[in-house]
Amino acid sequence: MTNLLFIPGTLCNKAVFSDQITTLSRAGHNCITLEYDQHDNLCETADYALSRFKADERFNICAFSMGGMVAFELLTRCPERIDRIALLDSNAHADKPQGRTVRNEHLNYAIEHGLNTLIHDYFSSAYLSSPNDEIMRLIAQMAEDTGIARYKAQLEILATRPDASELLANCDHRMLFMGGCDDVLCPPSEQQRMHQLAANSELVLIENAGHFASLEQSDKVNLHLYNFFGGAAHA
């Protein structure tokens, strides 16, 4: 049995991987999800992730969005313990100059109006390929479950993350970059760039999916993860 660490994105928890965890658990993987605490930097977040394993225990990674940045920190920290990494709708660049200003605006809006309202007013048009009330309710619930304190910590991680392009260029780990064709937050061009940087990588772009491909097109995402981490699609 292999260890498979799932790392969610901003304002997300294990529910974003629900279908993937079910599929890969049935395939024999020991699925572990990193549920974010209030750590506001990648170093402490990586320490927290590693605390889920025994010393020197090996593992694979499946990370979504901001979770990819945690995966890069783990890859820097203990490359010898990681076998394969799948990144879903993520990116490898440092924060943009205006990033902190925009995120502070989001944080203040959430403090005043609530995280549910933030999701609806700022992100509902950017998250999905096509409207889906059920998925948006799930996304809003994950945000509510995360809470303001953890959201603030996550925004600090996003603002201070390093560029991981050089890391990818020097990485020989098996990697899978997967993203929605309609993702406007971590677009296909970024998935293609990371794939070109990482020599031992695969690229999969999912049609009819936005940023939350794991929810919009779970069957397709499951199939590719199943094949990448081991197992047959019909098992």
Task: Describe the protein.
This protein has 235 residues and is of the alpha/beta class. Helices cover 49% and strands 15% of the residues. The protein contains ten helices and six strands; from the N terminus they run βαβαβαβααααβαβαα. Helix 2 packs across helix 3. Pfam families: Abhydrolase_1.
Which structural class matches the secondary elements? Answer: alpha/beta
Please work out how many helical segments DSSP would assign: 10
Share in β-strands: 5-15%
Percentage of helical residues?
A: 40-55%
Net shape? globular
The total of beta strands comes to 6
* Largest sheet entry: 6 strands, parallel
Cα distance spanning the termini: 15 Å
- Average pLDDT reading: 96
Computed over alpha carbons, the radius of gyration is 17 Å
Task: Report the oligomer.
Answer: single chain
Order of helices and strands: EHEHEHEHHHHEHEHH
- Strands across the major sheet, in which order? 2-1-3-4-5-6
Write a concise keyword list for the protein shown above.
single chain; globular; 10 helices; 235 residues; alpha/beta; six-stranded parallel sheet; AB_hydrolase_fold
Topology, pairings included?
Blueprint: E1 3-7, H1 18-26, E2 30-33, H2 42-50, E3 59-64, H3 67-77, E4 82-88, H4 99-113, H5 115-127, H6 133-160, H7 165-169, E5 174-180, H8 188-197, E6 201-206, H9 213-216, H10 218-229
Parallel strand pairs: 1-2, 1-3, 3-4, 4-5, 5-6
Helix pairs in contact: 1-10, 2-3, 4-5, 4-6, 5-6
